[in-house]
């Protein structure tokens, strides 16, 4: 991995300090955070923890419901997911980030999507275990589907 990065930039330090790396890292972090917040806002409300859904509801002073706030956060999530994908797929000669590095950020967002697709998998390890078993051990059904 280091050799791949080093071959594209003069120094590893240039890659670490690049605006491109900062932007792709920021976008990935936002995607992961918003995925978390859309799945954990009820629990975090009980715990009085910060969560963007609860903040939007509170700041609206009653004009925005939880459901509306969740939809707004999902829109932000989709916007940032698309932005991240554009950064990953965009090929430009001036890029200091090799594709393998960009793919790492995209794959990180995909893992977060899997972890939060059916609730908060960090707090329900059985759900995570079930997803892993399905992914690796359940045979794929290749029979033709009937319409």
UniProtKB/TrEMBL annotation:
Gene Ontology CC: chloroplast
Biological process terms in GO annotation: gibberellin biosynthetic process
Matching Gene3D superfamilies: Farnesyl Diphosphate Synthase
Listed GO MF terms: magnesium ion binding; terpene synthase activity
A family per Pfam: Terpene_synth_C
Annotated Terpene synthase metal-binding domain residues: 22-82
Key word Magnesium present: yes
Keywords, sorted A to Z: Lyase, Magnesium, Metal-binding
SUPFAM superfamilies xrefs: Terpenoid synthases (SSF48576)
PANTHER family: CIS-ABIENOL SYNTHASE, CHLOROPLASTIC (PTHR31739:SF33), ENT-COPALYL DIPHOSPHATE SYNTHASE, CHLOROPLASTIC (PTHR31739)
UniProt name for this protein: Cis-abienol synthase, chloroplastic
Natural source organism: Nicotiana attenuata (Coyote tobacco)
Gene that this sequence comes from: ABS_4
């Amino acid at each position: 991995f280091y050799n791949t990065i080093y071959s594209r930039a003069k120094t590893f330090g240039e890659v670490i300090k690049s605006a491109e790396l900062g932007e792709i890292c920021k976008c990935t972090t936002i995607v992961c955070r918003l995925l978390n917040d859309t799945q954990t806002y009820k629990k975090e409300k009980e715990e009085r923890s910060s969560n963007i859904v609860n903040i939007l509801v509170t700041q609206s002073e009653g004009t925005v419901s939880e459901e509306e706030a969740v939809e707004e956060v999902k829109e932000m999530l989709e916007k940032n997911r698309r932005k991240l994908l554009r950064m990953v797929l965009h090929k430009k000669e001036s890029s200091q980030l090799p594709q393998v590095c960009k793919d790492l950020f995209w794959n990180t967002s995909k893992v977060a999507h899997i972890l939060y697709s059916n609730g908060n998998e960090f707090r329900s390890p059985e759900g995570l275990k079930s997803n892993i078993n399905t992914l690796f051990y359940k045979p794929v059904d290749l029979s033709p589907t009937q319409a």
